[in-house]
Design goal:
This is Lysophospholipase L1. This protein is an alpha/beta fold. The protein contains eight helices and five strands. The longest helix is centred in the last third of the chain and has 19 residues. The radius of gyration is 16 Å and the shape is globular.
Length: about 220
């Protein structure tokens, strides 16, 4: 029974957009958030492990939200907590483009590279018997609503990420999906996805996982 581990931030967790007053609806339920859509589309026999943490970055302890936002620590915990896994998806970088991290496209991509260094290391590959990785580049943020101040300068950085992520994934032998070609952020807060975007992304991830696994799924 193959296992899919989805590692990411609030958009993997299933957080809806924030309203201008700072409130939001509850977390999207199973059947709405994209990891569960992907799981259903893959068909019977798969196990899903969701590891989405709102605020998570690729490599930054957040001075506001806490040191636990550093994805390097979270990935090691996830890989030690679950398994064996067959496919790992990594969709991070949105929170890295916050102004307080002084982001550049190369620096954000370097954060993804650090996560791939962990996931592709002999320690974790051997522990799980080998697993494949799908790198997902999130759609660009826009400056809107409650979160606009935090993401000042972020749109320009995030728009430059897809070719860098794609080249990195190819170099490291990973699959790649540019989510920005399929979905856009909710204009209410410029960061999160609506339910329709979750469905579109989940179905695309399932297709990408099938392609990544190839004959192993037969």
């Amino acid at each position: 029974m193959p296992t899919l581990l989805t590692f990411g931030d609030s958009n993997t967790h299933g957080s809806p957009a924030l309203r201008p007053d700072g409130t939001s609806d509850p977390r999207f339920g199973p059947g709405t958030r994209w990891p569960t859509i992907a799981h259903a589309a893959l068909g019977g026999g798969w196990t899903l492990v969701e590891e989405g943490l709102p605020g998570r970055t690729t490599c930054h302890p957040d001075p506001v939200m806490g040191a636990e936002m550093d994805g390097r620590t979270g990935l090691k915990i996830a890989l030690r907590s679950h398994g064996p896994i067959d496919v790992l998806t990594i969709m991070l970088g949105t929170n890295d483009v916050k102004a307080r991290f002084a982001p550049t496209p190369l620096a954000v991509t370097a954060g993804i590279a650090g996560l791939l260094d962990i996931a592709l290391s002999d320690e974790w590959q051997d522990r799980h018997g080998g697993f494949r990785i799908l790198v997902i580049c999130p759609p660009p943020v826009i400056l809107a609503g409650r979160l606009a101040g935090e993401f000042y300068g972020g749109p320009e950085v995030s728009r430059a990420l897809p070719p860098l992520y794609a080249a990195l994934a190819a170099h490291r032998g990973c699959g790649f999906l540019d989510a920005g070609r399929l979905i856009a952020v909710d204009p209410m807060d410029g960061v999160h996805y609506d339910a329709a975007a979750h469905r579109t992304l989940g179905e695309a991830v399932a297709d990408a996982v099938r392609a990544l696994m190839g004959p192993a799924l037969q």
